[in-house]
Every structure is written in C-alpha cells, then in structure tokens.
Amino acid sequence: MSEASSGAAGRVAPQPEAPLDPRAIEAIKLRHPWRTVLAVVLVIIAGLFIYDAAFNRPVYNWAEVGKYLFDTRVISAIGYTLQLTVYSMIIAVVLGVVLAIMRLSPNPVVRAVAWVYLWVFRGTPVYVQLVFWGMVPVVYKTIELGIPFTEAVMTITTKDFLSYFTLAVIGLALNEAAYMAEIVRAGLLSVDKGQDEAAVALGLGWWHTMTRVVLPQAMRVIIPPTGNEVISMLKTTSLVTAVPFTLELYTRTRDIASVTYQPVPMLIVASFWYLVITSILMVGQYYVEKHFAKGVAQRPDVMKPSVETGVVGVVGLDDPELTDDGTSSRRPGGTS
Fold it and tell me: Could you tell me the keywords of this UniProt record (predicted)?
C-alpha cells in the first residue's frame, strides 16, 4: 500500500460536535419611557378637553344638540347630501375614465382637449365654479334647439329646465372628474405594458383588453384614492350654497341656527352626521380595497426540505478515504 493510502487509512474521520444544551434566550424588552409619558400626557389633555366641553362651556348647549340631532329637517338634509355625493361621483367616475383614456390617446388633438379640461377645472376653486354654475340661468336664459343659423325648433327656459339641485350636481361632478381622470390614468399606467401586448397577442380587442385585463389590475391602484375622493365629495357638498342650493346638511343646520341664535350646537349636529357618514364610507372602502387586493400580498409557503440538513453529507469532509491532496484513495475496482 502506498504512503498516500496508508496516510489516508490512518486518518480518523472528524466527529460531529455534541449539540449544545438548548436554553431559552433571556431577551430584555426595550423600554420606551418617553413614549409612555407622551401617551399619558395626551390622554390627560383629551380628558381635560372633554370635561371642559361637557361642564364648563355652556355655549355648546348639549341639550340643544340632542334636540336637533334627529330633527326631520336635519334627516331630510342628510338625504340631499347623500344624493349630491352619489350622483356627482357616478358622473365624475364615468367622465374621469373617458378623460383618462383621452389623455393616453395617440391623437394629439384629443390629448390637448383633455389636458385643457383638467387645466381649467383643477386650476380654479370649486366654490368659484359653483358660483358660475349658479349664474347659468342668468347668463343663458333660454336654450334654443335647432339647425345653426336657422330659426330655432324648440326654446327651453333654462331656469325651468335646470334646477339648483341639478346645477349643483353638474358643478360638483365636472370638478371632480378632473381629479378622477388623473387617478384613473395613474392606475392604467401602473399596469405593465406587457399585459396589453399579451392580450393583443391572444386576439383580444380593445374593449376586452381594457375591461378584462387592464382595469381589473388597475383597480388596486384606483380604489384607495377614489375612496378618499368620495369622502372629500361628501364634505364638498357643503359648498353648494354658492349655487345656491340650501337643502343639504350644512346649509340646513345653518338656517336653523339663524332662527335659534345658537350656531355652535347646530355645527356640532352637522359635524356629528358628517362623521357618521364618513365612518361608514371608510369601512366600505376598506372592504372594497381588500376585495381588489386579493392575491397581491399573498406569498406561497416556503418549501420544506425533503431531507434534514444534518443528514446531507459534505463532499470532501465525510469521505474518510480522501488523501491530503483531495483525491480518493479508492481504486476504480473498489479496492484500496
């Protein structure tokens, strides 16, 4: 037997070290004393404010708040506020989708028209726009239908055709459509271009590509800001007094306060109902976001190895018949 073989035979295979005695790690929790102090201070301040508002501020007049909280005029005003919100948002979403597609159009004229619309309605305050819409029956007293430069076939009085409620809905919807267009455009751009190319390769037309491939993926990006816009629209309805439309929640409570000479309780009543409605909308937004986010944040379970790591041998360490230079002392025939 050669010296290399005898040296390899005389070597002793390394024995695995005995496992250490496993003991529980004694972790010391990191303390945040100033965080606790800040929380206590905030709780004390909140408690003092509530106590002061409940007992030391007669101007709040909580009895008056309870008296008008469920008043029929207030409940009716809530209905008008919800109608303004729903109708305006439906029109704004539909028009926003159209404007977003126009903004992404390869036609420069179509893109320019959409850009000018966004420039005008995003660049001017919504209150100013509502004032203009309230003046439409004054500026355009009649609407004439017929062939241009010929005698009108039909003449409609604008004041009778467009009520203040309708003008308020139009004003809110056209303003909100400018913001919804940018939200929808951002959602469409968030979808990888390869999705659109794959749909075209499969023979899908534009409509099927948009409704079955692009929009379902873009909704995950569109829904959160759209929910915020719905809540914002609910509060923006308080500005329709500029049209003027006076049957929504804020203006109605203000009219009641002008009779009772107690504006603060009526402001609390309006704020209470705004908070109730926005809370319901926030819950609905949460579940809609959860629905469209299915499968996005989920990850597959980590695959467990079929063989324990300790059983797997390491080439070069587990073979006792290796020589010092790393070559095996075994011969092709299986003998040393």
Answer: Amino-acid transport, Cell membrane, Membrane, Transmembrane, Transmembrane helix, Transport
